[in-house]
Design goal:
This protein has 6 helices and 2 strands. It is mostly helical. It has one domain. The chain has a two-stranded antiparallel ribbon.
């Protein structure tokens, strides 16, 4: 009996760690468009989308690699949280607008719609995996995204970012 408990604890711990690592990387991923090597302008429609989370989800679905489900759920949730913060810039101009390669900057309306739609799809991917992970997955989802939200507030030096919080809770809360 003790071996079973130890094994379950180890399994949950590894899963939660994979989720947390995925969420951290996902929260940082959209801003890789700042790297000159990629030749993308900041707030690129390529990196600020559900494209990579959906490719990771497909890869996990087809491969069945152990712990990948935890990582993909975390990564998708992290990207979603990043997009939730980007949905509420100080001003809708310049780098706050989505940039479509070879096309240029979108309008405020198109940028808002783009961010919201992709935020919704990232959260959908994340919460569609979380129930498979069980109670530990739900705990990891809530704790990790709460920690990243608090980090986002500190990084942006805001007191309370109600917009991103309410958006992510509304989209993800019903599914949990």
């Amino acid at each position: 009996m003790l071996e079973f408990i130890d094994q379950a604890l180890l399994t949950s711990t590894i899963g939660i760690a994979c989720f947390a690592i995925g969420a951290w990387l996902g929260s940082q991923y959209p801003d890789i468009d700042r790297w000159a090597l990629l030749r993308l302008r900041h707030r690129s429609g390529v990196t600020h989308s559900f494209l990579l989370p959906s490719l990771l989800w497909l890869g996990w679905f087809l491969s069945g690699i152990q712990w990948a489900d935890w990582f993909v759920a975390g990564f998708s949730g992290g990207v979603g949280l990043h997009l939730a913060f980007d949905l509420f810039p100080e001003k809708w101009r310049g780098f706050a607008l989505i940039d479509v390669p070879k096309w240029g900057r979108c309008t405020r309306t198109v940028s808002t719609a783009w961010l919201f739609a992709n935020l919704f799809l990232c959260v959908f991917i994340s919460v569609s995996i979380v129930p498979v992970l069980g109670p530990a997955g739900i705990l990891a989802y809530i704790a990790t995204l709460a920690a990243l939200y608090l980090y986002g507030i500190m990084a942006k030096k805001e007191h309370f970012a109600a917009g991103p919080l309410l958006t992510i809770l509304t989209l993800g809360g019903d599914a949990l």
